[in-house]
Design brief:
Bound molecules: zinc ion
Order of helices and strands: EHEHEHHEHEHEEEHEEHHEHEHHHH
Strand order of the largest sheet: 2-3-4-5-6-9-11-12
Number of domains: 1
Pfam family, one: F_bP_aldolase
Number of helices: 14
Function: Catalyzes the aldol condensation of dihydroxyacetone phosphate (DHAP or glycerone-phosphate) with glyceraldehyde 3-phosphate (G3P) to form fructose 1,6-bisphosphate (FBP) in gluconeogenesis and the reverse reaction in glycolysis.
GO cellular component, one term: cytosol
CATH superfamily: Aldolase class I
Number of strands: 12
Largest sheet: 8 strands, parallel, barrel
Radius of gyration: 22 Å
Shape: globular
Strand content: 5-15%
Keywords: Glycolysis, Lyase, Metal-binding, Zinc
Distance between the termini: 11 Å
Helix content: 40-55%
Pathway: Carbohydrate degradation; glycolysis; D-glyceraldehyde 3-phosphate and glycerone phosphate from D-glucose: step 4/4
Length: 395
C-alpha cells in the first residue's frame, strides 16, 4: 500500500516475536498512530482465522489466551486441577501458535489475557514456562511474548506493589507485562465488574503506576479505565471517554519533565460539568506526547472514532473478544439454518432417506471454515479501523 511507513528492523520479522522486538513493535505503532488488535483465541480454528486476516492485510497481530480459553485449549474433560489445566492449556496453545505463526508472514505477539488475583498460580506457571524455555543459562527466548496481570479489584497500593513483583519476574522471563488500574465495567471471562465505581482512572494513579514500574523495567503497558465496558452491553450505562487518556499522558509527560516532586496540574479528573478534552496539537510528536503505552480493554461494540481518539493518546493494543465470538457463531448459525435438511441425517433427508450422503455438509471442515471466514472478515475490519492494515508490508 502506498504511503505506508517502513516497518522497523526486528530480530524476527514473522512468527512469534519476543523481548526487545515487542517494544520496538509498540514504539512503531505509537509513532505511526495505529493499534494492534488483540484477538482472543480458544482453538486452532480461531487462531488460524486471526492469522489469516493479518496475513491478508499485511499487519502485525496479537493473539491472546484468557484463563478460561487456556483451560478450553487443554479440553474441558481433561483430568487436571483448575490452574494446572490453565497452565497446560496456555502452554499447548503457545506451542501451536509458535509453530504455525511464521507461515503467515507477519509478526505475532503471543500474549496471555487478564489474570485476576485468584488465578495468579496460572500466571506463575506461564512465567515459569518462559524461564524454562530460556534454558539453564537464561539466554534463550521466552515461550510467550507478553502477559497480563489484572489486580484492579484490589486497593491501588496493593495492586501496584504486587504488579511490580510480577514485573520483576517478567524481566527474568524476558516478557512484556500489561497491567490494569481502575475498573472496566461489564463481564470478562465470567467475572462481573458492573457494580464497581472506579470506572474512570485519575492521572495521578497512572503516574503512581508508571513511576513504580519504570524503576524495574520499561517493558510494560497500562489498561486504564475510561468508561470502557467488557462485552457488548446496553448503551448509556457508562460514558466512554477515550480522550481522558490524553489527560493522563499530559500529566505523566509534565512529571517526567519537571521532576517527580514538582507540583503539576491535572492530577485528578474534574467533576462532570468541567470535563472536556484537551486542545489537540496534531503536529506534536506522538513519541514525546505519549510516554505511556496504553491498552484499550472492552473494545467490542465501540465506534471507530473512539478507537482513533484512544490511539492518538498512546493506545497500541485493543482487546477484541465478544465481537469475534459473535462473528464466528454468526456464520455457523446461518450454515446450520440454510442446510438444515441435509444435516438431520447422515444420508438423504427425512422425507427422502434414500437420497445422497451428506458428508459434504456435516464435515466439521465445512461449517467451521464458514465460521473462520466470518471471523477473518471481522478481524480485517478491526485492522482497518485501528489503522494497522498495511503496516507490515516488507517487500
Ligand atoms: Zn480489563
Amino acid at each position: 500500500m502506498p504511503g505506508q511507513p517502513k516497518p522497523p528492523q526486528l530480530n524476527r520479522t514473522k512468527g512469534v516475536i519476543v523481548g526487545d522486538d515487542v517494544r520496538t513493535l509498540f514504539e512503531y505503532a505509537r509513532k505511526h498512530k495505529f493499534a494492534i488488535p488483540a484477538i482472543n483465541v480458544t482453538s486452532s480454528s480461531t487462531t488460524v482465522a486471526a492469522l489469516e486476516a493479518a496475513q491478508n492485510l499485511k499487519a502485525p497481530i496479537i493473539l491472546q489466551v484468557s484463563s478460561g480459553g487456556s483451560a478450553f485449549f487443554a479440553g474441558k474433560g481433561v483430568k487436571l486441577g483448575k490452574h494446572e489445566a490453565m497452565v497446560e492449556g496456555s502452554v499447548a496453545a503457545a506451542n501451536f501458535i509458535r509453530s504455525i505463526a511464521p507461515s503467515y508472514g507477519v509478526p505475532v505477539v503471543l500474549h496471555s489475557d487478564h489474570c485476576h488475583p485468584e488465578d495468579l498460580p496460572w500466571l506463575d506457571g506461564m512465567l515459569d514456562a518462559d524461564i524454562a524455555h530460556r534454558g539453564p543459562d537464561g539466554k534463550g527466548e521466552p515461550l510467550f511474548s507478553s502477559h497480563m496481570i489484572d489486580l484492579s479489584e484490589l486497593a491501588d497500593e496493593e495492586n501496584i506493589k504486587t504488579t511490580r513483583q510480577y514485573l520483576e519476574k517478567s524481566v527474568k522471563a524476558g516478557t512484556w507485562l500489561e497491567m490494569e488500574i481502575g475498573v472496566t465495567g461489564g463481564e470478562e471471562d465470567g467475572k462481573n465488574n458492573e457494580k464497581n465505581t472506579k470506572l474512570y482512572t485519575n492521572p495521578k494513579d497512572i503516574w503512581d503506576v508508571y513511576r513504580q514500574l519504570s524503576e524495574v523495567s520499561k517493558n510494560f503497558s497500562i489498561a486504564a479505565a475510561f468508561g470502557n465496558v467488557h462485552g457488548v452491553y446496553k448503551v448509556g450505562a457508562v460514558k466512554l471517554r477515550p480522550w481522558l487518556l490524553g489527560k493522563h499522558q499530559k500529566y505523566i509527560k509534565a512529571k517526567l519533565e519537571k521532576g517527580a516532586d514538582a507540583q503539576v496540574e491535572g492530577a485528578e479528573i474534574p467533576d462532570e460539568q468541567d470535563l472536556h478534552p484537551e486542545p489537540e496539537d496534531p503536529n506534536e510528536d506522538p513519541e514525546k506526547k505519549n510516554p505511556v503505552f496504553f491498552v484499550f480493554h472492552g473494545g467490542s461494540g465501540s465506534a471507530k472514532g473512539e478507537f482513533l481518539t484512544a490511539i492518538g493518546h498512546g493506545v497500541v493494543k485493543v482487546n477484541l473478544d465478544t465481537d469475534m465470538q459473535f462473528a464466528y457463531c454468526d456464520a455457523v448459525r446461518d450454515y446450520m439454518v440454510y442446510n438444515l435438511q441435509r444435516l438431520e441425517t447422515p444420508v438423504g433427508t427425512r422425507k427422502d432417506p434414500n437420497g445422497p450422503p451428506n458428508k459434504n455438509f456435516f464435515d466439521p471442515r465445512k461449517w467451521m471454515r464458514e465460521a473462520e471466514k466470518s471471523m477473518v472478515k471481522r478481524v480485517e475490519e478491526a485492522l482497518k479501523d485501528f489503522n494497522a492494515a498495511g503496516k507490515w508490508e516488507t517487500s
